[in-house]
Amino acid sequence: MSLRSLPFVLVAALPVALATAQTAPSTKVSGTLQCAKPNPQYSVEVGDTPGHVFTLSKATCTWTKGLEIAGSQTKEGTSVNREDIKGGEAETEGLHTSTMANGEKIFVKYDGEAMIKDGAPQNVHGKWRFKGGTGSLKKIHGKGTYKGTPAADGSVTFAVEGEYDIPPDKAASPK
Q1: pLDDT, the chain, mean
Q2: Fewest Cβ atoms closer than 10 Å to its Cβ: which of 4, 72, 113, 114?
Q3: Rounded to two decimals, what is the model's pTM?
């Protein structure tokens, strides 16, 4: 290779090197989230078949074993949830906001399903993904799964696991 072609090779390789350097490996996380009985909770009969209802609810939650994210732990949060309940099955989707120990927040979109028996959820499970955050967590992304264990008082304990990464802030990078 001649010295004249070396600058071309370096310039051509730079985007690949930068892309590789900016792709942080995902960090695995797991935790336990305890959500109280929803309050408020609204239910509307759909009317197409007996027992088919849509619900909208909000629950306050506490991380009994917080997710460790970028050196801080999740502490508490709220979940706003929509369910389509029909024939003993429920499809769920919602948004969860958690506050970290350092005051920053993460935003999570989730969807899942559950079986309904005697008006109570059973076999709660689903998937989640980060929708962003505040401060240093603004660009967080990742995903995972959850499994819920409902209690007789209407609360639910969720086992949460997944992974995340936070791309470097290009604005803060030297040019």
Answers
A1: 87
A2: 4
A3: 0.81
